[in-house]
Write a structure and sequence with these properties.
Elements: E1 2-10, H1 13-32, E2 35-40, H2 45-51, H3 57-65, E3 68-73, H4 77-80, H5 89-99, E4 104-110, H6 123-126, E5 130-136, E6 146-148, E7 155-157, H7 163-179, E8 183-188, H8 194-208, E9 214-219, H9 220-229, E10 236-239, H10 241-251, E11 262-266, E12 271-275, H11 292-304, H12 309-324, H13 345-355
Parallel strand pairs: 1-2, 1-3, 3-12, 5-10, 8-9, 8-10
Antiparallel strand pairs: 4-5, 4-11, 6-7, 11-12
The structure holds nicotinamide-adenine-dinucleotide, 3-isopropylmalic acid (IPM) and manganese (II) ion.
C-alpha cells in the first residue's frame, strides 16, 4: 500500500514522541511491504517563532494533501502564564481541528494488564476497564463567541451546540457501541445548561435508531465520580468538547498515565492521530517522556485511516510485549522497577521496534 504521512511534531515533547512514532511507521512499512512517504510541518510555538502564525498556510495545505497526520503536541510555558498573548500555540491546534472538520475525537482508555500496579487506583477496581470516549471536537465553548467588555472587567465564552453537530458525533458513538459491548453513556449537564438540554434531546432521538444499544445519561459531575469509583461500568462514552477534554485526562489514570493515551481525530478530511497529553515542558529535552501514546496513535492511524488491521494489531501487540517484558518509562514505573528496565524515550522506542 502506498501512503503519504505528514509528521507534525509541534512543541516540547511532541518532537521526542513523534520521532518514535515515525520509527514504528517505518518498521511496519518494512515488515508488511508498504510504501510510506513522509513530510514534516510546523505548528504551535515553533511555527509562531518561524512564521508568526500558529498554523501556517503551508502546514494546512500539507495536511489536506496527506493521507494521515501524526501529531505531537503544542504549548509553551511562555504563553501559559501570559493571558494577554494574542497569538498562542493552542490556536494552531484548534484551527487545525476546525479547518479539517475533525469533529470526532476517539480516545480509547485501555488498561494493559501489566500496568495494573502503575495506576493510583486499586487493581480490583481497574482490572478489565476498557472505555472508548467520543469527544466532540469542533463545537462547544471552545468555538463559541468570545467577548471581553471594554473596561476589561467582564469576559464570556459562548457554549453553543447545533443539532447536526450533536447528531453526527452521537451516530459515530452508537455505531462503535454496536461493535463493542453495546453500551453507551452520554455525558452532559442538562440539569443546568440549555446546550446540554439540546444535547440530551438529540441523543435520545438518535438512541431510538439503536434499540440494540443500552443508553444511559449521566451528568458530568457524577460521571467524573463514577469513572474512578467503577470504571468497568463504562463502554462507549459520548460527550461535548469541554467535558470530554477534562474527563479523558481523568480517565488517563485508569490506563496508568497520560503517556499511554492515544487519540484519533476524524471527520470530513485527513485524520489526525495524537497523544492526549500536551507539550510537557517540565520533562522536555530530558529524554524521559513516554512515547507509547504516540506509538498507540500510530496503531489508530493504521487501522482507521488506512484500514490496516493486522498492522495496527502488530503495533499494539509489540507494546504489550514490551510491557510484559517489564520495560517502563518513568511515568509508568514504580519502586519495584529494576534499574535496567527503566527506559528513556528513545530506548523504549527501540524495545517496541525489537518486539515488532
Ligand atoms: P501535559 O499533558 O503537557 O502534562 C501534564 C503532566 O503529565 C506533566 O507532569 C507531564 O510531565 C506529564 N506527561 C505528559 N505527557 C507525558 C508523557 N508522554 N510521558 C511522561 N509524562 C507525561 O499538560 P499541561 O502541563 O497541563 O500542559 C503543558 C502545555 O501543553 C500547555 O501549554 C498546554 O496548553 C499544552 N497542551 C497541549 C495539548 C495538545 O497539544 N494536544 C494537550 C494538553 C496540553
Ligand atoms: C487536548 C488539549 C487541547 C484541548 C488544548 C491544548 C487546546 O488539552 O488536545 O486535549 O483542550 O483540546
Ligand atoms: Mn486536553
Amino acid at each position: 500500500m502506498q501512503k503519504h504521512i505528514l509528521i507534525v511534531p509541534g512543541d516540547g515533547i511532541g518532537a521526542e514522541v513523534t520521532a518514535v512514532g515515525k520509527q514504528v511507521l517505518e518498521a511496519i512499512a518494512a515488515k508488511f511491504n508498504h510504501q510510506f512517504t513522509y513530510d514534516e510541518a510546523l505548528i504551535g510555538h515553533v511555527a509562531i517563532e518561524a512564521t508568526g502564525s500558529a498554523l501556517p498556510n503551508e502546514t494546512l495545505t500539507k495536511m489536506r494533501a496527506a493521507d494521515a497526520v501524526l501529531f505531537g503536541a503544542v504549548g509553551h510555558p511562555k504563553y501559559d502564564n501570559d493571558p494577554s498573548a494574542k497569538v498562542r500555540p493552542e490556536q494552531g491546534l484548534l484551527q487545525m481541528r476546525k479547518e479539517l472538520g475533525l469533529y470526532a475525537n476517539l480516545r480509547p482508555i485501555k488498561l494493559f494488564d501489566e500496568l495494573l500496579e502503575a495506576s493510583s487506583i486499586k487493581p480490583e477496581i481497574l482490572r478489565g476497564a476498557d472505555i472508548l470516549f467520543f469527544r466532540e471536537l469542533t463545537g462547544d465553548v471552545y468555538f463559541g463567541e468570545k467577548k471581553r467588555s471594554e473596561d476589561r472587567n467582564m469576559a464570556s465564552d459562548l457554549m453553543v451546540y447545533q443539532r447536526y453537530e450533536i447528531e453526527r458525533i452521537a451516530v459515530k458513538a452508537y455505531e462503535a457501541a454496536r461493535t463493542r459491548r453495546g453500551k453507551l453513556c452520554s455525558v452532559d449537564k442538562a440539569n443546568v445548561l440549555e446546550s446540554s438540554r439540546l444535547w440530551r434531546e438529540v441523543v435520545q432521538e438518535v438512541a431510538l435508531r439503536y434499540p440494540d444499544v443500552e443508553t444511559e445519561h449521566q451528568f458530568v459531575d457524577a460521571a467524573a465520580m463514577l469513572l474512578i469509583k467503577d470504571p468497568k461500568k463504562f463502554d462507549v462514552v459520548v460527550t461535548g468538547n469541554l467535558f470530554g477534554d477534562i474527563l479523558t485526562d481523568e480517565a488517563s489514570q485508569i490506563a496508568g498515565s497520560m503517556g499511554m493515551l492515544a487519540s484519533a481525530s476524524v471527520g470530513d478530511s485527513t485524520g489526525v492521530y495524537e497523544p492526549i497529553h500536551g507539550s510537557a515542558h517540565d520533562i522536555t529535552g530530558k529524554g524521559v517522556a513516554n512515547p507509547l501514546a504516540s506509538v498507540l496513535s500510530v496503531a489508530l492511524l493504521l487501522d482507521i485511516s488506512f484500514g490496516l488491521k493486522a498492522e495496527s494489531e502488530a503495533v499494539i501487540a509489540a507494546v504489550d510485549a514490551v510491557l510484559k517484558a517489564g520495560y517502563r518509562t518513568r511515568d509508568i514505573a514504580n519502586a519495584n522497577t529494576p534499574a535496567d528496565k527503566l527506559l528513556g524515550t528513545y530506548q523504549m522506542g527501540e524495545q517496541v521496534l525489537r518486539h515488532l
